[in-house]
Amino acid sequence: MTPPVLCFRPHHFLCALGFAGAGYSDAFTANMTRIVRDGLRAPGGDETVIEVAGAADDICTPCPKRRGTLCVSQEKIAALDARHAAALGLRAGARLTWGEAQERIRGAVAPGDLGKLCDGCQWLELGLCEAALARLHEAK
Predict the structure, then answer these.
(1) pLDDT at position 86, please?
(2) Are 122 and 73 in contact (CB under 8 A)?
(3) Are strands 49-52 and 6-8 parallel, antiparallel or unpaired?
(4) Measured distance CA(107)–CA(55) in Å, rounded
């Protein structure tokens, strides 16, 4: 049976890369754990197909900040998505595998780039995404 296609807004590609078990709520963290640890990082996860969304996505589903297809911080989220879409060459409706997404990240985002790319993200200061990006670059 073919696994379902995941739906990610552009900035969630890097969020998935850096996820380390914390989130906005218990439901959000459980959902992110299912998607990332139990899916993308599981054996065969690199073959998972992800469709680029232009609004709320599978990660956003249980988020307490979600308001329909938008976010209570919509201006900040739209800016994050625009920067990530430009950096990674993503457009709404495009499909790629998680393995292809990691290759795009590796080719387009250098260690140290997240300060500008993820400006405004409350998780940035924890350094989890920067560490994950460094590991991705070290892997090849």
Answers:
(1) 97
(2) no
(3) parallel
(4) 25
Tokens at 110, concatenated: 């250098």
How does DSSP classify residue 91? -
Looking at residue 66, what is its pLDDT?
85
- Residue 97 Ramachandran class (φ > 0 left, ψ -120 to 50 alpha, else beta): beta
Give the per-residue SS3 of 51-84. EECCCCCCCCCCCCCEECCEECCHHHHHHHHHHH
Given a cut of 90, whether residue 24 has pLDDT beyond it is no
Q: Which of 72, 65, 81 is nearest to 15 (CA)?
A: 81
Q: What is the pTM of this model?
A: 0.93
Q: How far apart are CA 97 and CA 79, in angstroms?
A: 24
Q: Is residue 129 within 8 Å of 114, Cβ to Cβ? A: yes
Residue with tokens 């709404």: 92
Q: What is the DSSP string of 102-126?
A: HHHHHHH--TTTHHHHTTT-TTGGG
